[in-house]
């Protein structure tokens, strides 16, 4: 679930709540010293935790805020009455032994390695101006674990932990429902891809200097392919993002405290799965006598909304930086960033862009 940070509560008062249609709001205070009743959190080892009952109607978790009877409990959010299982009846017959009934906050202690923050920029190499903007932004933002990937009609994975940057490429199939034929983990192990910043900052800078715009020959080759009359270009963003998310979620036993993917786009995805047909809107609204620029455009595909679910499961947050003056269908792309807890930025050109500061 994405959490938006604010300095005020929303809804601010009952009138705003009723007018906005928001059923309820929540204030999240990380690492709070006590709950709303002044009670300190219960610290509980993970192995001693129990699965909490959930409301059959709204899926809310059972807590100390709910009314309970011997065999049932009433949800405080939707007012539904739920039955306890036999195991729960036995457990809650001694409420003093149930941490969830003594405090609203329970801190679970998880033994093992600490999480690893990591940052992965995905760059579409299109022009010198675009690449120079991306390079300057990334060099100023380097920290912790860092992995560099490029995408066009293929995915490029950079190993920057050696004296010379090494790039492994995985081609993106042009089919509208295609996936990469080779898993990224097989092309390059994840821990070869993710480099500790403190040891490899110069190597990363050298790798960024090797980024070049996609050659006209490569773009012509990719654009020459088509499916069902749809001409394809060289921005295989959908498949590349799907592969990267599976890449990060495939490593067993590794937890990322913060995995953040910075996706840099210079236009709409137009190759492989997740491609967006931006031409249809002009024709669609022109036939109705409407101005497409003034219409509220719905998303044309649920691909990126579904992809956001994959990102959340993998613990990955996606930020999208679009530097383009052409229509890019952000109505479809926005779900990938917003639903994963990231941000969406749009810049009309590289000259007036504030991308380095935003990054």
From TrEMBL:
Residues 125-351 form the Sec23/Sec24 trunk domain. It comes from the Eukaryota. One of its GO terms (biological process) is intracellular protein transport. Gene3D superfamilies: von Willebrand factor, type A domain, Zn-finger domain of Sec23/24. This is Sec23/Sec24 trunk domain-containing protein. InterPro entries: Sec23/24_trunk_dom, SEC23_SEC24_subfamily, vWFA_dom_sf, Znf_Sec23_Sec24_sf. GO terms for molecular function: SNARE binding; zinc ion binding. GO terms for cellular component: COPII vesicle coat; endoplasmic reticulum exit site.
